[in-house]
Fold:
Amino acid sequence: MVLAIIYVVVTQLYVWMALRLGTGTFVSIIVTGFLLRGAKRIFERHRERREGEGPAQPEAP
Structure:
């Protein structure tokens, strides 16, 4: 997850700086936001399991 965030950000920075284009900026911001939200939840889940607060099995949707 963290690697995906880094990939999206670095790719967009390359497009901005090297190619001097604004293409994909809006989509990159949305994708990065979703990835950050997912990464935050993953780290929270790991912390909960480590502390013994969370259930052992994933919750059903």
User: Anything to note?
Assistant: The mean pLDDT is 87.
